[in-house]
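Appendix C: a fully annotated inverse folding record. The material below is reproduced so that readers can follow the format used throughout the book. The structure is listed first as tokens, followed by the designed sequence.
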């Protein structure tokens, strides 16, 4: 009888942005493929309590969990790869840890004591790690530490992991270090020295990794593996080369091929079924065999940073791949549309998405994109802010309510068709105070939404302060807008759709957080299908290839 759970502690070395989060998610997938229950947790060493107040430029997308936590975008990878819902406990920041400890100190819980990083902060980190194991009843908990070994701020986290190795039975903890092997172009050589140094850095803290995952852009040979094994003191079969993949969903298959899954099982003395990755293989096969070109525009103000729309991008891909569509995402800066630039690019699109956003910058550009979609009957999917701008455009240009706006952008708008939610009015703190997490929504029978979902009641995740202003509901409805999704008490508008349009739908929630590679979200699936139909009906495909031929 083995004890539960086992822990895999995953650190990073050499440089950031080598795909540690994806690697961790992929390890989760190959363990789940063996029938094991897997939980994943990310420890972020920064001092913000959560990333909800951080700019997308700093942090990329904020992923919202079902229980309403604003978390790191890696949690989106975890959910998409492992297909288990994560929770508030799945993302712990240094800020949260310090806040908890300091609140206890103020309450007098430590009266008489000096509060120190060791043991108070490290104890709190260990409590959070163990809580995930207990709450999820997982066989294996994978804990990823953000940042790279050597960062000052990650020291308390690494110290906590070191302490856990002693507290857990040695066989119950596995340390995986993800590094990067640079390639020197002049001599065409792959270098292991930075990996050696980062392992030395870890050893200085008292952690000897058991597995090294060596990320690389180039193939690596056995000599390199032997060298890393020798210098870093790990078994040769525990040096896992991981070359940059052409498709992120191929990473679990690549890791499985290295034998890491069996290595982990053996090391933990866990019995499990043979891995079944057949569904996953099917996904990757389909990703690689897509044929029909589909051009989807994402109109936002952070489009130069695709990470800011990570889940939206993945959701489009999930839906497109299942429909054999090779989707090309066209990133359009709403600020440029606002200045009258790139408007003609809208004409090349088969579908338009306006995703989540905050603040006035770029809003008029988004409204221009909505107007184009409505007038030209281009399929449109509005996500949260995307629904709000869809309503503002309709109010201004169809209902002729001049200067209609959201009070987020113009507090004195004569027609505030989008307004601050009543429950938000007394709130002054910015952190974690939006309407967050999963809420139910009932759908109008036979609407576009009800047909897409094939259901009458759904649960979706939210992150907003503003909502559709019900003073305008009647005017919108008489003129052809169907509010096809409402909160169960009928008060809050969750989905708006245009009747005189093949697919123009906005939702106040974030469907992008629920899409999975094997289970595309119904709204994205319906949107992609409508976009493909729009393209085919107009013979746009033929038109485009003719245009290309002209160019050549
Ligand atoms: N800024 C809008 C609000 O707070 C939309 C939020 C979003 O798109 N997530 O309601």
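Designed amino acids, in order:
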């Amino acid at each position: 009888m083995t004890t539960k759970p086992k822990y895999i502690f995953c650190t990073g070395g050499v440089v950031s942005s080598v795909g540690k989060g994806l690697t961790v998610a992929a390890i989760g997938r190959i363990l789940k493929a063996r029938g094991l229950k897997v939980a994943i947790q990310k420890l972020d060493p920064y001092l913000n309590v959560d990333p909800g107040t951080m700019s997308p430029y700093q942090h990329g997308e904020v992923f919202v969990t079902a229980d309403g936590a604003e978390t790191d975008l890696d949690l989106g990878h975890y959910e998409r790869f492992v297909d288990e819902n994560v929770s508030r406990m799945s993302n712990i920041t240094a800020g949260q840890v310090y806040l908890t400890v300091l609140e206890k100190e103020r309450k007098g819980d430590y009266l008489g004591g000096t509060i120190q990083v060791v043991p108070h902060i490290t104890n709190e980190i260990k409590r959070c790690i163990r809580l995930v194991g207990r709450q999820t009843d997982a066989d294996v908990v994978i804990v990823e530490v953000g940042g790279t070994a050597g960062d000052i701020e990650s020291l308390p986290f690494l110290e906590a992991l070191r302490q856990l190795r002693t507290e857990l039975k040695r066989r119950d903890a596995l340390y995986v270090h993800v590094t990067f092997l640079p390639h020197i172009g002049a001599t065409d050589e792959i270098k292991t020295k930075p990996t050696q140094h980062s392992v030395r850095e870890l050893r200085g803290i008292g952690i000897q990794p058991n597995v090294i995952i060596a990320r690389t852009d180039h193939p690596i040979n056995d000599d390199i593996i032997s060298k890393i094994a020798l210098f870093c003191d790990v078994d040769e079969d525990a040096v896992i080369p991981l070359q940059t993949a052409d498709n992120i969903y191929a990473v679990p298959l690549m890791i499985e091929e290295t034998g890491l899954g069996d290595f982990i099982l053996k090391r933990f003395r866990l019995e499990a079924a043979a891995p079944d990755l057949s569904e996953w293989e099917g996904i990757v096969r389909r990703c690689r065999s897509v044929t029909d070109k589909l051009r989807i525009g994402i109109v936002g103000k952070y489009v130069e940073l695709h990470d800011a729309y990570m889940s939206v991008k993945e959701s489009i891909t999930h839906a497109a791949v299942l429909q054999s569509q090779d989707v090309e995402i066209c990133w359009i800066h709403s600020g440029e549309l606002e200045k009258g630039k790139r408007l003609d690019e809208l004409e090349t699109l088969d579908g338009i998405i306006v995703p989540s956003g905050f603040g006035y910058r770029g809003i008029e550009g988004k409204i221009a994109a909505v107007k184009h979609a409505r007038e030209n009957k281009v399929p449109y999917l509005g996500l949260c802010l995307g629904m709000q701008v869809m309503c503002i455009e309709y109010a201004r240009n169809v209902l002729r309510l001049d200067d209609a706006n959201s009070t987020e952008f113009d507090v004195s708008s004569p027609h505030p068709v989008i307004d601050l939610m009543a429950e938000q009015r007394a709130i002054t703190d910015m952190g974690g105070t939006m309407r967050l997490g999963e809420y139910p929504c009932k759908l109008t029978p036979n609407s576009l939404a009800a047909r897409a979902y094939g259901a009458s009641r759904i649960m979706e995740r939210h992150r907003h302060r503003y909502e559709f202003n019900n003073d305008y509901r009647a005017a919108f409805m008489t003129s052809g807008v169907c509010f096809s999704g409402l909160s169960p008490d009928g008060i809050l508008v969750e989905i708006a759709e245009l009747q005189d349009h093949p697919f123009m739908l906005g939702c106040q929630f974030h469907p992008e957080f629920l899409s999975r590679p094997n289970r595309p979200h119904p709204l994205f699936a319906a949107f992609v299908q409508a976009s493909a139909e729009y393209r085919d009906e107009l013979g746009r495909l033929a038109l485009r290839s003719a245009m290309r031929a002209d160019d050549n």
